[in-house]
Amino acid sequence: MLNRKEKVFIVSIICIFSIKTPLVLAMDQDIPSHGITIAESPNLKAYTKQWETAPRITSHYDKNNPASCSPLLTWTKNLNAVKYEVEFFTTLPDDLQNTQLSRDHIYFSRSIYSNGYNPPLDKFAPELLGKQALYWRVRAIDYDGNPISLFSVPEALYTDPAKENMKAPILTARYNQGNGTTLLYPVYSWIPNSGAKQFEIELLSAPPENHDGITPSRYRIAAFTTKLCDYYDKQPRSSSKPFYWRVRSLDATGNPIGVYSKADSFTVTPASAWQTAVYGDSITHGGGHMSYGPADWEYSYETYLNFPVINLALSGDTSEALMDRFDRDVLPFHPHYLIIMGGTNSLRGGYSADSVIYNLETIKIKCLKNNIKPIFLTLPPINPENIKKVFGENSAPDWQNQMNLVNQYIRSQVYIDIAAALPCHNGILSDGLALDGLHLDVVGKKIMAQTINQVWPSITKQADEQTLPTENSL
C-alpha cells in the first residue's frame, strides 16, 4: 500500500525528556524508525485498564559482566507498541510503581521506535560511569502517547570505561531466514547509535574489505541517505550472487559518527525456482502499526503461510504500477502461481474501478501468456477516519463503491476472499485490524494467511485449469 517514505504524511515529533540533574544538558537522539514520526501526547497518567505484560529486558550488565559506557539495551518486542519509553535512575525510589512514570528519574526518553536503545549515558550520568550502577526500565507506548504496558522490572546497569562503546548501528533486517523473508524490494532497518541525526546505507556486491571504517567500499553498488531508521529500496535486487549491506551514522552536517556497521547479506535469485510468488502493494510487501516495516516478519502475512513464497511486492504501488513492472519483476522468476492483491492505492486516490479492473485483467493475461497461474485476493476495506488521523490524507468519497466493483470483478476470477474474512462494521476496516486504517496489523495478517492456507489445495487446482482467452488481444 503506501510507501512510508514517499506516500505518508509525516507528523512532527516532539521528544519529551526529563533531566533532574542540573549539570546535564543532554538531548536524546531524535531518530524515528520505519518511515513515520509520531506526535507526542503529554498524557502520562496511569489508566485503570487491563495492562499488557511488561517488556522483558534481554540485555543484562551486572558487576561481573558490565557494559561499556555506551551500551546497547534490549528488551522483548511488544507487537502492539508504536514506541517505547525508557527511564533511568541513580537509585530506585521506595515508592516506584510499574504503572506510572517516576518523578525521581534522572533521565527518560519516549522517542524509541524499536526494542533496542543506545542511551547517551555520557550526557546525563557521566560522573557515574564506571563507578556505580544505574537502573533502568522500559514500557510500551501507543500511537497517542499513552502507555499500554506495565514498566519492566528495573534492571541494574553497571559500566566499565575499558570496554568498547557501541560505535555503529545494529542491523535488524534479517533476510532469507524462513518463509516469506525473501524480498525483491528489500527494506534496510537498524538500531541507531547515540547522537546520530542521519544515516548512510551502503549496498555492496561482495563483503566489504574495510571493516570498522568510515570510507566507502570498493564493492559499492549503491548508497542511500535517510533521517529515519529504515530505508525502502526503490530498485529490485536480484542476482545470482548475494548482496551485502551496512549502515553508518552521520551527524547533522554529514560527518560520520563512529564507523560502518557489520555487513549483512541477502540473496534474491530466480535460480531458486520459486513455485509461488506474491505480488502487490504494501499490504503484501509487509509492515503495519506505524512502527513496523516489511522486515518485521510478524507483520507479513507470508510468514504465516504453509508454503514458501517469494515476495515481489512494492510499497506504494498502484494497480497501474503493478501492471507496468510485471515484465521486469515477475517474468524473471516465472513462478507457477502468482498471488495478486492490488488496487487499493488507486481507488483511495480517486481512480475508477474500471481503470483498476483493466490493469488487473492485463496482469492476468500477462500471467496466462507466460504459463503463470494468477490467483487474486479481494481487497480489504479501509478506514478513512484513521487514514486522515495518521497520514493527514483524505480518501476518495466513493472509494467504497469503487472497491465493491473491483471486488466483484475479482470474485469472477480464480480468487481467495480476504475481504469477507475480515470482520468489519458497515464496510469500514476496524481499528483493531489496522491502526492506520490501511495496513493490516498482526491479527489481520494472520487472518489473511489462515484464509489462504485453508483453500490453497483447492484454489491451486482451479488456477491450474485457467487458459488464455482466445479472443484477448493483449
From TrEMBL:
<feature type="domain" description="SGNH hydrolase-type esterase">
    <location>
        <begin position="278"/>
        <end position="445"/>
    </location>
</feature>
<dbReference type="Pfam" id="PF13472">
    <property type="entry name" value="Lipase_GDSL_2"/>
</dbReference>
<dbReference type="InterPro" id="IPR036514">
    <property type="entry name" value="SGNH_hydro_sf"/>
</dbReference>
<dbReference type="InterPro" id="IPR051532">
    <property type="entry name" value="Ester_Hydrolysis_Enzymes"/>
</dbReference>
<protein>
    <submittedName>
        <fullName>Lysophospholipase L1</fullName>
    </submittedName>
</protein>
<dbReference type="InterPro" id="IPR013783">
    <property type="entry name" value="Ig-like_fold"/>
</dbReference>
<dbReference type="InterPro" id="IPR013830">
    <property type="entry name" value="SGNH_hydro"/>
</dbReference>
